[in-house]
Amino acid sequence: CVPHIIRNFVGEEGAEALAMVLQHNSTLQTLDLFDCGICHNGALALTTALQQNATLQHLNLCHCGMSDDGTLMLATALQHHSALQSLNLFGCGISNEGILKLATALQQNTTLQTLDMERNSFGEEGVIALATALHHNSTIQSLNLGSCKFSDNGAVALATALQHNATLQSLQLENCGISDEGALALATALQHNSTVLSLDLDSCKIFDKGAIAL
Question: What pLDDT shows up at residue 42?
């Protein structure tokens, strides 16, 4: 069963009803709630329910209005959930507070393979925390940090992580404030990394020096 409920007016009440089902369902593998207006309380209900669910593998909460509170509950779920493989949190209004908790959870999670954090409001501190998580995580293969609010310090931290991480295959960093300094660090890291197949740096602030190094 793959319920795609994208761009509907599910709302908080509908999300809370889905959360009740999720606590007891043992077959659902994919839940897509893209742009469904579930808002804060709905997102909280769903992430809380995830802590009691053992089968959901793919969860899309893109543009759900989850914010940091929902992310905190989601982080707790990721520490215990044994099935979730992909998580889309595109445009959820997550700041450094939320991403710090999520990054800590990722150090312990052993199932998540794809994480989309594009267009959230966290900055350097959050990206550095995610980079630390990559030192310890051995399952994430795709990470999207496009259009987040970080620049070279975050890129340098990610570059350091890439020298230790052996599973990440795709890293999207488009439309961030990365300049030549960050590009040079990433180029050096790629010399020591044998798993990254795709690195997206579109619409950054990289000039000749960084481009030549890459």
Answer: 86
The DSSP H or E segment spanning 18 is: helix 11-24
Confidence of residue 57 (pLDDT cuts 50, 70, 90): very high
Is the alpha carbon torsion for 19, 95, 82, 56 positive or negative?
positive
pLDDT at position 180 is 97
pLDDT of residue 178: 97
Instruction: Write the CB contacts of 161 (distance below 8 Å, at least 6 apart in sequence).
Output: 131, 132, 134, 135
pLDDT at 118 over 80: yes
User: Under a CB-based contact definition with an 8 Å cutoff, are residues 160 and 186 in contact?
Assistant: no
Chain CA centroid to CA 138, Å: 15
Q: Which of 173, 112, 102, 93 is nearest to 132 (CA)?
A: 102
Which distant-in-sequence residues (6+ apart) come within 8 Å of 61 by Cβ?
Answer: 33, 34, 38, 43, 46, 87, 88, 89, 92
Contacts of 208 (CB under 8 A, 6+ apart): none
DSSP string, 142-209: EEE-TT-B--HHHHHHHHHHHTT-SS--EEE-TTS--BHHHHHHHHHHHHH-SS--EEE-TTSB--HH
Q: Which residues are bridge partners to 32 per DSSP?
A: 4, 60
Token pair in block for residue 174: 């488009």
Categorise residue 91: left if φ over 0, alpha if ψ from -120 to 50, beta otherwise. left
- Of 49, 110, 60, nearest to 82 (Cα)? 110
CA-closest candidate to residue 129, choices 168, 157, 150: 157
